[in-house]
Amino acid sequence: MITIQRISRRFRVLFILLMVATPVLPLVLWGGFNCLPDVMRGKIFGDAGAGPVRELSLTARAMGCAIHMVTALIAAYGFRTLVRLFGLYGEGKIFLAENVRLYRRLGLVIILSMIAGVIANSLTTIALTIDNPPGHRMLSLSLSSSQVMTLIIGLLVLLIARIMDAGRELQEEQQYTV
Fold this sequence. Notes:
The chain is built from six helices and no strands. It is mostly helical.
């Protein structure tokens, strides 16, 4: 148990750092987008389907930042959930109703992040082509195997929450049996 508590405290610190850093990344990326080398701009946003990526106007960068800030805030909330969960583990609290609630929340956050990611990728093509003349703007819709895998992982976390809840109920029942 001591090992679990020690490792949990370390993970909690990692998740705190990720929770704070995640919303900063879209600001840095989109704010300095035009300063990035062409190769990096193409690598970062080439999968958005918008073709070659040139320098973007302030409007396009603000749109891109806003789009990705939504996904970043969802991820930050997921990290916050993990901070709370590993905080409980760090205190040696394993099978509590609060843990189950946090696992359920984490599963929903994973599913929501997948949905938001699909929408964000689609909207990013608009942000990248907003400065194009009418008729040359794009909207791209796609669903990748990694996004499907993320959905499956979210559903598995929800199932784990149910299993943990059943285990918690059995433990409580056993605790009060004389």
